[in-house]
Amino acid sequence: MAVDCFSKITKNDLVKLVDNAADLIRTSVDYKYILVLLFIKRLSDRWKEEIEDAMSEIMEETGIDESEAAKRAVSNEFHSFMVPENVLWNNIRKDRDKLTENMSRAINEIAKQNKELDGVVNRIDFIDFTKTRENRILLEQLFALFDKYNFSNKCIEGDAMGDAYEHILMRFAPEKAKEGEVYTPREVVRLMVDILDPQPGMSVYDPACGSGGMLIEAYEHVKSRMGVDKANRVGLYGEERSPTTYALAKMNTILHDISESHLEVGDSLLYPKFKTASGLRHFDFVLANPPWSQKGYGEDTLKQAEFKDRYAYGFVPQRYGDWAWIEHMLYTSKSKVAVIMDQGALFRSNSEKIIRQKIVDEKLLDSVTLLPEKIFYNTGAAGAILIFNKEKQEEYRDKVLFIDASREYGKHPDMRKLNIITNDNIDRIVSAYKKFESIDGFSKVVSVDEIKEKDYNLNVTTFVIPINNESSIDITGTIEELNGINTDLTEVEEKLNGYLKELGYID
To answer: For position 476, what pLDDT does the model report?
Structure first.
């Protein structure tokens, strides 16, 4: 049974908790089971908290006794989501021998009672998960672990619940990247959102939303500056082709207490979901990190798509879907688009060049930022952020800003082989974008005519020339690295000598 809270549960508390859960499952079990358990526990604890709050409100307003107030308090008007009494967390785990069956029944009952959660909580099969004895024991251990805390609002500090959920996504990102799942580092997302700078009353759309990180960051951007009420006035819209990843995104937004999120399962390039009576819906800002160099969206396929007039600039080759995503995003945007692309999309020829040329000539391209290498979990390649703007200021209408942020990074605190974009890096890039100015070795304002002269090659290094082409040498860092190598060699030599002595080869 979950204990009552005597002090607020912090982000660090919950991160440690989910890390312990991750250590339990290691890599033998899909991490999504942790996320569903976290979500169900949260729903259950919130339900009980809402019952208590509703009873207090009802008794104060009507003067009726506690038992009558308890009957009224289960009405859906007092609850974010309906959780039947028989599937509350304590009732799920009451009979240890039926834990799997009770959990399976609970997620199906909750999905039945809440249309918004159908296809979300019941996306994971716990019956299949616990076919082995080892996994049945593991499920018991996870239940016991999550019993440590009460996940009600009164016990959780700030955004700790949503932060813990995001932490699990990030922790397993390197492993899941090998299976094709893409998690965009939150620092890159923050950079894109800071450039767009969404405001209350605006709509933000991600046509390849994954686990919802970009939409959540747009919400957090406004919340950190203006508060929750203003943040809840930002309309968030996302589409995701994978039903399982959609489920993760839905739970993610709910655990961040976001009320204005509209997520759909669908293939944005073929059958977009957000429509109006007159056609496709348009949004103030569109942002995404779609799959790079995605295959399968050639001319024959896209000619069968709904609203194929989206691809008026041309059709992409079968092997590279990058500019099809850009065309869709431009079509659905009222103002700005921010998209991460593989560098190849900046210079490849043939049909991609034709599309690129038309968009540049229409003066829609606002900026191109080259990112550092080794910041993504699924590739060491340096991507690029392209910003398009349908409302460019007249003085910049003929101009494109190129930013070389390839050296704007620090070492990742947890993963030795990865880099990270720091807050200072983000501030410098955003400042350069907003000032729209040339800075030696870092950024350059280029005319559309200059881009034409370069045959519509958008490679940042074509326009931004480093101040010093010779690689600078970090003397102190190099010495420290050499000292570390020498220490390692000494330790190896000592071990080797020890083995040789044991074998009698040396005295």
So the answer is: 47
Q: Are 45 and 3 in contact (CB under 8 A)?
A: no
The distance in angstroms from the start CA to the end CA of the chain is 64
Place of tokens 């949503």: 162
User: Which residues span the domain enclosing 67?
Assistant: 11-171
Task: Please check whether residue 92 is in contact with residue 107, taking contact to mean a CB–CB distance below 8 angstroms.
Answer: no
Q: Which of 155, 171, 187 is the last residue of a domain?
A: 171
Cα–Cα dist 402/104, whole Å: 53
Reported confidence tier of residue 128, pLDDT bands at 50, 70, 90 = confident
DSSP annotation of 415: -
- 250 in any annotated domain: yes
Q: Which pair of tokens denotes residue 430? A: 């955003």
Whole-angstrom distance, CA of residue 412 vs CA of residue 418: 5
H/E stretch holding 141 reads: helix 133-146
Alpha-carbon separation of residue 32 from 179, 244, 381 (angstroms): 14, 9, 27
Identify which of 205, 197, 195, 199 has the alpha carbon closest to the alpha carbon of residue 333.
205
Name the packing angle between helices 32-62 and 11-25 (round to 10°). 140
Residue length, the chain? Answer: 507
3-state secondary structure of 278: coil
DSSP 8-state symbol, 503: H
Q: Annotate 145-172 with b (16+ C-beta within 10 A) or e (fewer).
A: bbeebbbbeebbbebbbbbbbbbbbbbb
Tokens encoding 161? 């619940």
CB 59 within 8 A of CB 69: yes
Range 112-131 average pLDDT = 91
Question: What tokens does 180 get?
Answer: 């094709």
Residue the block writes with tokens 């007249």: 394
Q: 448 with 411: CB under 8 angstroms? A: no
Q: Are 329 and 321 in contact (CB under 8 A)?
A: no
Containing 367, the helix (H) or strand (E) segment is: strand 365-370
Does 54 share its domain with 153? yes
Longest CA span, the chain? 93
Q: How many domains does the chain have?
A: 3
Confidence of residue 415 (pLDDT cuts 50, 70, 90): confident
**Amino acid at site 366:** D
Q: Quick check: 472 pLDDT over 50? A: no
User: What is the SS3 assignment for 2?
Assistant: coil
Q: What is the 3-state secondary structure (H, E, C) of 7-20?
A: CCECHHHHHHHHHH
CB 253 within 8 A of CB 215: yes
> Would 4 be classed as within a structural domain?
no
